[in-house]
Amino acid sequence: MVCRYAILSALVWLGVVAPYTVASGQAGHDPGNSPYRDIHRGLTLRVTGGYFGGSRGTVPVGATMGPTAGMRLELQASSALIVAAGVSYAKTTANYLTAYDTVPKRIGPIDNSLVLADFGLLLSLTGGKTWRGFQPYAGATLGLAFGSKIAADTSGYNFGTKFTYAPEIGVHWYPVRRLSLDVGGRLLVYHLSFPTIYRLHVLPITGALSETTIHPWGTVGLAWVF
Questions:
Q1: Using an 8 Å Cβ cutoff, are 219 and 211 in contact?
Q2: Staple partner for 94: which of 35, 43, 63, 78, CB 3.0–4.6 Å?
Q3: What is the pTM assigned to this prediction?
Q4: Where are the alpha helices (DSSP H) in the chain?
């Protein structure tokens, strides 16, 4: 009798409990069919192109509006943190003011390129994995913008070197494990400084001699993970 009950109990367990236990162990995605894939943790070299826009300032002499080309190094420092550093050349244009007589004369826009260098921290929104090959991210950069003086500008204005900062969002797409494509966007912010002579001719006498300008900057990139 005891043996009969033992056999009956075993059959009940196999028919009811065992399937539930197996199903519970398979919760989530089958590893072979999961949409998530580990990202190769190596140094990434990204070649970028894009367009740099935004304001020229109240006195419209700031350099802006032009295509960009650059390179960026990225490192997935942890499961979610990406460290990035890059440099780009922006083929921008600017206006300038001639020597003042009774009325200042504005000329341009003419070519007046910028070099943009930055360092940033980005947060991978999918951690150390991609979702169906995509890795969205968000973060911020700090950097410098280097510009040159327009020789014909006799007002004393010079773009010089500006401290920059920018929030950034984008997405990496990995068609294969080591190759990625990127679409991103930033809002680059820096301050323009004007010479005091602007108060006599193009600004109110109490007008500010500095101004913050914001520059939307969209980029696309192609990268290889080493």
A1: no
A2: 63
A3: 0.82
A4: 2-12, 18-25, 198-201
